[in-house]
Structures are given as structure tokens and as C-alpha cells.
Design a protein that fits this description.
Structural class: alpha/beta
CATH architecture: Alpha-Beta Barrel
Distance between the termini: 21 Å
Largest sheet: 8 strands, parallel, barrel
CATH superfamily: Aldolase class I
Strand order of the largest sheet: 1-2-3-4-5-6-7-8
Radius of gyration: 17 Å
Number of strands: 8
Number of domains: 1
CATH class: Alpha Beta
Order of helices and strands: EHHEHEHEHEHEHHEHEHH
Length: 253
């Protein structure tokens, strides 16, 4: 199945840099470096549109210390990824980021592996979203798979954004599989847009697969990319890695 070819695309997509993997490296040796806060400053100065971070319930990479410092030093958009745990929701309300993105969380996973089951957790998500909005957080997104039922449930829960989980696209083993996934993702983005939701995307996007994603999926205003950029930074430095990704994300189709 081929993805749609006639799409309404945004003039520009914002690039948000996820700095969690810097904290993972720091914590592997229980050191004070490399500092994810320092990485956030470099990424912002290199032209990134904002910073993404995820303080997990067990704090295995981003710590509370990081969260408070990121609030102080990041001047552009701040995206606080979080589970529905009361303690983390309270911290997010205190920090008041520009964007709160609710994601599923399992302690045994290396990274987030799937989208939220919004239908299953509808009542709890309504309460959390209301709490975040009452704290003054302008945007609340749910990280979801490109499933139309989940997207419709996202709108009903009160969120004003979705972040499309692009992981299946990133690991697709063939062009045919990739085409099927992207057709589904394009449809999901269109439905979300029709429901009045802003469309973000993330997970597994990188220097080589982003261009096809950009050509295929409409209405995406923001992407979160971390692992690919931090990995590239090992060889060329973080400033250059960010700028290279900016050229991919914001360049012509």
C-alpha cells in the first residue's frame, strides 16, 4: 500500500531535542558528567526549538536536580514527559513547562515502547490532564500509536495535542511495511488535525528516515528526537549534530 501523496504540510516543523540519553550516560558511572543540563544549553544555542526530558518514576536518568535546573536555563520550549504517577504529575505542575506529554511507563523497558492506551485509562487521564491545565500548562499531549480510536479518545480526554509514536516506522523491515505504517500514520495525523489536536511526533526518527516521514505525514508541527542526535554527537560534537538534524527537519522536501 502506498502512502498518500497529496498532503497539506506545515511551513516549518519545530525540532525538540531529548536529552535523556546524556543523563543515562552520566548515571551509568554515577558521575556528575556529562551533564544533561549542559547538553540542553548547547542544543538550544545550536538552534533547537526546545528541550525534552522524561523524569521516570525511578529517576534512572533524569533527576529532580536536572528538572529544576532545566526550568532555570532553558529559554525556549520545555517539554516535560511524564507518567500518570501522582508524584511526577505534582512535579510537572510545579515546574510548569510549556508542554506536558503523557507517556506510558514500564520499569523494565529501556525506552518507551508503545503509545498510551487512552481508552483503558480514560478516566485517570481526564483527571491528570485537568490537573496539568489548571496548573497553567498551555499544551498537554498524549503519546499515542497511530490508532484512530486512541486519537478520538485523546480528544475526549481533554488533551490539545498528540505525539504520534513513530517507533514502528523506524524499525520497519521493508519498504512495503514502511508504506503501510506511514499510510496509517498519515491518516491518524489528518484525523487528529480534524479533531482540533496539534500533531507532534517522535521515537526512532533520525537523519536518514526523517525526510520520508516529513513528505508523508501531514500537519506535524513538532518532532522530538534524542537518541540519533546524541549518538551522532559522539563523533561530531553536540552542536554540529543538532545543526545537521535541523537541516534535515527544516530543509526542503
Amino acid at each position: 500500500m502506498n502512502p498518500p501523496t497529496e498532503l497539506t504540510l506545515p511551513n516549518e516543523i519545530n525540532l525538540m531535542i531529548n536529552i535523556d540519553h546524556v543523563a543515562t550516560l552520566r548515571n551509568a558511572r554515577q558521575e556528575q558528567f556529562p551533564d544533561p543540563v549542559h547538553a540542553a544549553v548547547i542544543a538550544e544555542q545550536a538552534g533547537a526549538d526546545g528541550i525534552v526530558f522524561h523524569p521516570r518514576e525511578d529517576r534512572r536518568h533524569i533527576t529532580d536536580r536536572d528538572v529544576y535546573l532545566l526550568k532555570q536555563v532553558v529559554h525556549k520550549k520545555l517539554d516535560f514527559e511524564l507518567s500518570m504517577a501522582d508524584e511526577v504529575v505534582a512535579l510537572c505542575c510545579e515546574i510548569q513547562p510549556h508542554l506536558a506529554t503523557l507517556v506510558p511507563e514500564r520499569r523494565e523497558e529501556v525506552t518507551t515502547e508503545e503509545g498510551l492506551d487512552v481508552i483503558k485509562h480514560q478516566d485517570r487521564l481526564k483527571d491528570v490532564i485537568k490537573r496539568l491545565q489548571e496548573a497553567g500548562i498551555e499544551e498537554v499531549a498524549l503519546f499515542v500509536d497511530p490508532d484512530l480510536h486512541q486519537i478520538e479518545a485523546t480528544a475526549k480526554a481533554g488533551a490539545n495535542c498528540i505525539e504520534l509514536h513513530t517507533g514502528d516506522y523506524a524499525i520497519a523491515k521493508s519498504e512495503a511495511e514502511r508504506g503501510i505504517i506511514m499510510a496509517r500514520m498519515a491518516k491518524a495525523a489528518q484525523v487528529a488535525h480534524n479533531l482540533g489536536l496539534r500533531v507532534h511526533a517522535g521515537h526512532g526518527l533520525d537523519y536518514s528516515n526523517f525526510s520520508f516521514f516529513k513528505r508523508t505525514v501531514p500537519h506535524v508541527s513538532e518532532v522530538s528526537i534524542g537518541f540519533a542526535i546524541i549518538s551522532r554527537a559522539l563523533f561530531v560534537g553536540l552542536e554540529q549534530a543538532v545543526q545537521e538534524m535541523l537541516r534535515v527537519v527544516k530543509g526542503p522536501l
